Amino acid sequence: MLIPRRSAERGYADHGWLKSFHSFSFADYHDPAHMGWGNLRVINEDRIAAGTGFGTHPHRDMEIVSVVLEGELAHRDSMGNGTAIPPGSVQRMTAGTGVRHSEHNHAPGSVTHFLQIWLLPAERGLAPGYEQRAFDPADQRGRLQRVAAPIGEADAAEVPLHADARLWIGRFDGATESARLALDPARKAYVFVTRGRLAVNGVALAAGDALAAQDEAELRVSDGCGAEVLVFDLAS
């Protein structure tokens, strides 16, 4: 079963300094039909204006993954991390028993565009933790590159997750670039397009569109036009 979720159907909040699209219920946006998919709880597509950002605030018992698309994200947290997250990077923060952090765009005259992703952890009460990896877009050309996987499965180049989830990123342009990804039909999958357009199992998708999948044995990515796509394999 394939369930498209079009960009215009998402929740939206304009705070002036922050413009955010919500794929699932978040903050003041509540839709009982879209509370998450499997153990994927949040995908917020955020754009932070220059010189602004999220002030220090708390989280707990969540795996928070950030994927930077444009600009740079400055991160600070109560674990002592203070890093810059450039485009092509994937960051994971394990909130666990409790962590405080801030995210800012310090670059003058440019917007930071990124995805804020929340995954339910495999267990509660974990020690807070932080990981960050950089990925070369060339390695995602015409294929799906796995960038995150559960701890114990993730290799040294991938972001390890305290969650039963895997994440691939791919870039597709033209008729010759395509990919297939085998799935366990007992699990769920979620596809999110960040740029351009493409087709997944014959369903046409554009930037901001998503496709929820269950009872599927394979995803087929094709017909890309300047496309960048995230694919999640998720616990049911």
Automatic annotation (TrEMBL):
Kindly give the Gene3D superfamilies that the UniProt entry links to this protein. Answer: Jelly Rolls
- Name all Pirin N-terminal domain ranges: 10-119
The record ties this protein, via InterPro entries, to: Pirin (IPR012093), Pirin_N_dom (IPR003829), Quercetinase_C (IPR041602), RmlC-like_jellyroll (IPR014710), RmlC_Cupin_sf (IPR011051)
Every copy of the Quercetin 2,3-dioxygenase C-terminal cupin domain together lies at 154-234
Signal peptide (residue range): none
* Domain of life assignment: Bacteria
Family membership noted in the UniProt record: Belongs to the pirin family.
What this protein is called in its record is Quercetin 2,3-dioxygenase
- Record the organism: Sphaerotilus microaerophilus
